[in-house]
Amino acid sequence: MFFTSRAHGNVLFFGGYPTEEWLDVLLKNHTKIFVDTTTEEEKEMYHLLDYRSKVQNLEYHHFPILDNNIPNDIGRFKEFVFLLSEKLMRLEEGEKMYIHCKGGHGRSGMLVACVLCYFLNIYPEKALHLTTVAHSERENLRSKWKNVRCPQTFRQRKFVIDVFRPIVITPTLYDEKIGGDRQKLPEFLEESSIRPINDKSEDKVLSEVLIHLRRAHMKKSRSASSFDHSNHSLPLLSTMGGEVILCP
């Protein structure tokens, strides 16, 4: 599909707002999930195709973000990323997801990078690199966009890094919360709301936590900036000095 960027395998694509021609190509190529990040005001201002009625038997998801901007509600945005990742996992062979904004350079790239972080369990810097490469390889990309990073604005790239920066959970924090009492585990998980990265830890207690942990955000976490990411093949989970680094 000449107007799209292939973000992951043959399932995740992103690009600009679909025209009638592009929509036909997307449908013929078994695109089952459409993800729209444009606002209703944009659709009216630029007379964009309202294609929702044409995909009513498929899936259409709308998460409006202002042009050149970032989401206002980070919590809701994270939930949306989790949802899209679950949808990706359930696609049948040959089926595709298409994420778009208006031009296909900023908001769609930002969302794709976040989905890649969660779906592939990779660091945001790696996801941003993959997104930029995919963007540059789009067949119908005009020359002025060839060497532009994706997402295009610094604020959007920083948003991806901030949302998916590593956090640290220490045994001390875990012990403080449950004190060895397994019955307190559900409450601990509910409060911390952290998703599993790897459930194969050699530590049995930690393994149990990782199996049950779900979705990431932890308000009280200390910095993981001193951790050397480059020397580890599992970037989102490392047992180092008894610490576990998870990606929010």
TrEMBL record:
Coiled-coil parts of chain: none
Domain Tyrosine specific protein phosphatases: 78-113
InterPro entries registered for this protein in UniProt: Prot-tyrosine_phosphatase-like (IPR029021), PTP (IPR050561), PTP-SAK (IPR057023), Tyr_Pase_AS (IPR016130), Tyr_Pase_dom (IPR000387)
A molecular function GO annotation: phosphatase activity
Record key words, sorted: Hydrolase
Listed Gene3D superfamilies: Protein tyrosine phosphatase superfamily (3.90.190.10)
Name of this protein: Tyrosine specific protein phosphatases domain-containing protein
